[in-house]
Amino acid sequence: MAHVPVTGEHSPASSAPVDTHCPYCSLQCGMALRPVPPDGGPGDAPGGRPGGVEVVGVEVVERTAFPVNRGALCGKGRTAPAVLSSRVRLTEPLVRRPDTGRLEPATWEEALDRIAEGLESTGRAYGRDAVGVFGGGGLTNEKAYALGKFARVVLGTSQIDYNGRFCMSSAAAAHQRAFGLDRGLPFPLADVARTGCVVLVGSNLAETMPPALRYLTELKEAGGRLIVVDPRRTRTAEQADLHLAPRPGTDLALALGLLHLVVAEGRVDEEFVERRTSGWPEARAAAMAHWPELVERITGVPVPELRKAVTMFCDAESSMVLTARGPEQQSKGTDTVGAWINLCLATGRAGRPLSGYGCLTGQGNGQGGREHGQKADQLPGYRKLDDPAARAHVAAVWGVEPDDLPGPGRSAYELLDALGQDVRALLLMGSNPLVSAPRAAHVESRLRSLDFLAVADVVLSETAALADVVLPVAQWAEETGTMTNLEGRVLLRRAALTPPPGVRTDLWVLSGLAARLGWEKGFPADAEEIFEELRRASAGGPADYSGITYRRIAEEDGVFWPCPERVERDDPESAESVSAESPLADSPLADSTPAESPPAESPPAASPPADSMNAGAHPHPGTPRLFLDRFATDDGRARFAPVSHRPAAEEPDAEYPVLLTTGRVLAQYQSGAQTRRVGELNEAAPGPYVQLHPLLAERLGVDEGAPVAVVSRRGRAVAPARISRDIRPDTVFMPFHWAGPGRANTVTNPALDPVSRMPEFKVCAVRLEQAEG
Q1: pLDDT band at 595, cuts 50/70/90?
Q2: Residue 386: phi, psi to the nearest 5?
Q3: Domain named 4Fe-4S Mo/W bis-MGD-type: which ranges (predicted)?
Q4: Tell me: the pLDDT tens digits for 134-150?
Q5: CA-CA distances (angstroms) from residue 87 to 6, 90, 430, 459, 680?
């Protein structure tokens, strides 16, 4: 139990501990918060304001019953309440004054009026697509839904995307292509500990989501094997039975080389391939062009290690491949993930209990955030924006004509690149692209060139500091809403505190802006009211939430989507009947066995017995496990991807002879906008660094701690050297959490994957120079 001071005016929403979830990564670890009034004892005054007790502290209480983390928290989660302090957060609106050019305090009326005028006048002068909206993967499902609706209905713009595009869009695209449905993990995390072998590709979860490491520990304790693929020997790689350290940008060749060996050694599950897949001949031919010796030359992974990996993966009774940003944040990320999926399909390690491919989503609501409309090409329920039936369904829920909805817009980086040119005004919520976007110096210049920028955030981030209007919005502990974690488990964050007097919720902001722009109805500020509309909008879509309610989430510790609502078959006009259109409602795609129970060897179908459909007698149980009987494609078969290796967009040369890869560290999170304001975390990770091998350091003449400049074709970043044998001699690593001279994304490459539009964060060519201290 941790007591974290919270200065400023807060009132307890309840005197008892309130069950909620961590504000950071996609695990969405369960925790409870207990407000502590000035006397240090449990508060007993009624919640709300006026009349509530001023709270000066919050206790983080373990929530051991929540199945994902079972009470465990990392340092970020344990110290999360520190950002509630008025010393580090925004507590009143700020408006940039023309006479001084500085951001100064303003009233909410003035701030909202200024934003409404800025957005409306820009659209009137230059067209609706001159107004852009940029969201975030940390926004609740309700906020993501409302933001997408606001952009398309109120502003009428197609120019909306979000920073989740930088998270797992390549895995999402590969999921869709292979399985017909994208959910990060098609099984609960509990299954990871029960499988026979896990191949973990490009993930350092010991630092990025530490409470999840227990699943790998339990896997090994039960006799399972762990293979880690990473160019660095990370804390996670140290736990592996086999560590493969490929050259950055060669994961695709590695996966193809493993599949080549599967074929050559006669390990293909021919019966599974014949019965449950399509496209194998083409994928097989592509893999056979990647023989082991060629793959060793490309990747640097010795042939004996390739053979050992295949033996470990195929000899296990069940196996999984889990990927993260390493293979995904590449200009060929979709194909790379597709190659790892091919390995699962060829060996029959998909669509079976305790086997399959999954992606470890990064951001807190990276899963839900891309399901309900803030992505450039999507409508709620993971519907496609260019699908006429999807447009008709959502337009009916929104009370507009389908033809009035704009079409797909630019992806995240392309939207940022268009700022100040085609897009002249921007509303940004919950993102800090000045630090997190590739080619960040260029993105900063584009942000500065805007005619108008409005930012809603909890802190004055580097991006917010450039805005014309900054709105202080409520934090995770001060508002209620749903999140969808990496398993597809829909969760309920509950408010434990009311926000300070000068702070409002994002939903309140959108409601106020919509009213000023002529939409006094349709944008409530109440989260549960919005969720009820989201249920109707998602009904019948791939991500069907229509059978999920706040009450069910609370009672069941989360509900896995898809979860269509039961219908009364004798009442086709009932409000619930729309969910009968769901492609999953009557198809046996899934095992409804409880997530924390072992899956059945012969899993039951998701469709209930006929008599259970009477009068809504049984709600849909939710879908912890997908694809156990069929995949979500039209014919029920998984699709192989006929992919071949190709180089990174930027390979080393004489001028830029070294590879740079980037990532996260244990004590910081994403752009660091929140974690860099927590003293304990800054003590653990005070700033950026350049990790390099001793051979490279010797060649450069650099000592431990000396400043090193990392220079690419896009810019220069300077940070202290951290010399280590845990990285390849041809590669350097930088964490990307900081702004200023050590901003790693100053040098990263914005080359885009042609399918997912993911930038190539994970590999670019650089040179190293000694820098002045």
Answers
A1: confident
A2: -95, 10
A3: 15-86
A4: 999 999 999 999 999 99
A5: 9, 8, 19, 10, 15
**Integer-rounded Cα radius of gyration of the chain:** 25
Phi, psi of 330 (to 5 degrees): -135, 160
Spell out the residues 6+ positions from residue 551 whose beta carbon is closer than 8 angstroms to its own: none
Please name the residues in contact with 153: beta carbons below 8 A apart, sequence gap of 6 or more: 398, 400, 404, 405, 519, 522
pLDDT tens-digit readout, 164-222: 999 889 999 999 999 999 999 999 999 999 999 999 999 999 999 999 999 999 999 99
**CB within 8 A of 107, min separation 6: which ones?**
93
**C-alpha triplet 697, 236, 366: angle, nearest 5°:** 105
Q: Rounded to whole angstroms, how far apart are CA atoms 701 and 354?
A: 50
Name the token pair of 614: 């009477």
CA distance 371 to 538: 9
Which uninterrupted H or E stretch holds 456?
strand 452-457
Task: Tell me if residue 131 falls in helix, strand or coil.
Answer: strand
Phi, psi of 228 (to 5 degrees): -115, 130
Q: Which residues of 645-667 are buried (b: 16+ CB within 10 A; e: fewer)?
A: beebbbebeeebebbbbbbbbbb
Q: Which of 416, 368, 440, 472 is nearest to 146 (CA)?
A: 368
Helix (H) or strand (E) holding 482: strand 481-484
Question: Cα 773 from chain centroid?
Answer: 37
Q: Which amino acid is at 344?
A: C
Tokens in use for 501? 């007097």
Q: Cα(359)–Cα(172) distance, rounded to whole angstroms? A: 8
Q: CA-to-CA distance for 666 and 669, rounded, in angstroms?
A: 8
- CA-nearest of 520, 599, 469 to 97 is 469
Say what the pLDDT of residue 13 is. Answer: 55
CB 118 within 8 A of CB 155: no
Tokens of 423: 């897009």
Q: In this structure, is the dihedral angle defined by the CA atoms of residues 444, 445, 448 and 451, taken in order, positive or negative? A: negative
User: What's the confidence (pLDDT) of residue 591?
Assistant: 59
Instruction: Write down the pLDDT at residue 12.
Output: 59
Looking at per-residue confidence, does 601 or 509 come out higher? 509
Q: What is the dihedral of CA 457, 459, 460, 466, to 10 degrees?
A: -20
How many other C-beta atoms can be found within 10 angstroms of the C-beta atom of residue 707?
A: 17
Angle at 650 between CA 689 and CA 249, to 5 degrees: 70
Model pTM greater than 0.90?
A: yes
Burial of 428 (0-12, 13-18, 19+ CB in 10 A): buried
Between CA 359 and CA 45 the distance in angstroms is 45
Strand 425-429 with 131-135, pairing:
parallel
Cα–Cα distance for residue pair 673/567, rounded to 1 Å: 45
At 57 the pLDDT is 73
Q: Tokens 């049984």 correspond to what residue?
A: 618
Strand order in the sheet with 356-359: 242-244, 225-229, 197-201, 319-323, 356-359
Buried b / exposed e over 15-25, threshold 16 CB at 10 Å, is: bebbbbbbbbb
Handedness of CA 190, 195, 201, 205 (dihedral sign): positive
**What six digits make up the tokens of 596?**
């924390």
- Shortest CA distance to 679 belongs to which of 663, 688, 671, 668? 668
Task: Tell me the pLDDT band of 688, cut-offs 50, 70 and 90.
Answer: very high
